[in-house]
Amino acid sequence: NLKNIFTIDCEEWFHGAGVPISARATLRRSVERNTHLLLELLVTHSTTATFFTLADVAQEYPNLIKAISNAGHEVASHGYQHQFVYRLTPQEFTHTVQYSKQLLQDITGKPVLGYRAPYFSVTRQSLWALDILAECGYTYDASIAPIRNHRYGIPNTPLMPYVVQTKKNTLLELPITPHSVLGGSALHGGFYLRTFPLGFTASSIQSLNNHGKRCILYIHPWELTNYT
Fold first, then answer.
1. Which helix (H) or strand (E) holds 33?
2. φ, ψ for residue 222 (rounded to 5)?
3. CA 110, CA 91: separation in Å to the nearest integer?
4. Is pTM beyond 0.90 here?
5. Is the CB of residue 114 less than 8 Å from the CB of residue 216?
């Protein structure tokens, strides 16, 4: 059977909300509770996932990361503090991916092979990041969105997994799967999953599968939050 790929960007709500790093310490947290809810749902549906995890979260909740790994899910890197790759220098980026990789490996005792950039921010102006990922020992990247967006995306790139030749090695690219809507492009997950009816997304995934293609989709733990 054709299997789709379910991914979770393991971060707090404020990581993607543009909140300055200096202002995050006292903010309300939800990632631990909501990630455990996701783990319960995954058990219920006999499904495994890849958790692209921020080092920032792993520092605060190492036991949560252990629980993810011990449940049979893949723990991969989402960088350190959820910053746009193209706003970092190559040296700063190298530090974030090296630190994240080592921290997650120390917690889980397992190799960290994959990386996803915050905001899918490996774009044409930051393709140098792929060389650094390969040099740091990552074997795959899941950062490129093959759509046009004001913050991210590289249009007209392959829609399905492909191999990237870096300076010293190769890297498997696993682009988030797009779909067409209202004359434009959207992604399977995140804002788009919240915005469009569930039936619309399910139909799109089924159409891909009917044509022999897997769908890579994503959510965030904070999207399960209900404060009412």
1. helix 31-44
2. -65, -15
3. 25
4. yes
5. no
Task: Measure Cα distances from 203 to 7, 124, 154, 208, 215 in Å.
Answer: 19, 31, 25, 9, 12
Nearest-5° Cα angle at 160, 165 to 164: 5
Residue-wise pLDDT tens digits, 136-172? 999 999 999 998 888 899 998 998 899 999 998 999 9
pLDDT tens for each residue of 182-199: 556 788 888 888 888 889
> Distance between CA atoms of 130 and 128, rounded to whole angstroms?
5
Cβ–Cβ under 8 Å, residues 50 and 73:
yes
What φ, ψ does residue 169 adopt, rounded to 5°?
-160, -170
Interaxial angle between packed helices 62-70 and 31-44, expressed in degrees from 0 to 180 and rounded to the nearest 10: 10
**Nearest alpha-carbon partner for 184 in 224, 217, 222, 146:** 146
Q: Which DSSP state fits 58?
A: H
Asked if residue 190 lies in contact with residue 217, where contact means CB atoms within 8 angstroms, the answer is no
Q: Over the stretch 6-38, which tens digit does the pLDDT of each residue have?
A: 999 999 999 988 888 899 988 999 999 999 999
| Among 3, 5, 58, residue whose Cα is nearest residue 219 | 5
Query: 3-class SS at 180?
Result: strand
**Rounded Cα distance, 215 and 209, in Å:** 8
Q: 173 - beta bridge partners?
A: 141, 162
The sign one gets for the Cα dihedral 131, 134, 136, 138 is: positive
